Amino acid sequence: MRAYAAAGRTVLFATHYLEEADENSDRVIVIARNRIEAVQRAQVQGWL
Questions:
Q1: Is residue 23 part of a domain?
Q2: What value does the CA radius of gyration of the chain take, rounded to a whole number of Å?
Q3: Following DSSP, what letter does each residue of 1-48 receive, concatenated?
Q4: pLDDT at 48
Q5: Which domain holds residue 37?
Q6: What is the pLDDT of residue 35?
Q7: 32 to each of 1, 6, 15, 16, 35, how far by Cα in Å?
Q8: Of 2, 3, 44, 45, which has fewest CB within 10 angstroms of its CB?
């Protein structure tokens, strides 16, 4: 996954653990009840 991202490719990563998403992503999108609830650059302190 990281190799693809390092090569400039888009990677879709689905998880229930926001900390894991934050560690492995440039941007995190939270979807709840089939709607986008939040969009944030990853690793922004205090957003989780």
A1: yes
A2: 11
A3: -HHHHHTT-------S-HHHHHHH-SEEEEEETTEEEEEEETT-TT--
A4: 56
A5: 2-41
A6: 93
A7: 24, 29, 13, 11, 5
A8: 45
Report pTM. 0.58
Flag whether 46 is in a domain: no
- 47 in a domain, yes or no? no
Domain total in the chain: 1
Chain position carrying tokens 């989780």: 48
Give me the pLDDT at residue 46, please.
62
d(C-alpha 42, C-alpha 25), whole Å: 6
In a domain, 48, yes or no: no
The residue to which tokens 């998880």 are assigned: 15
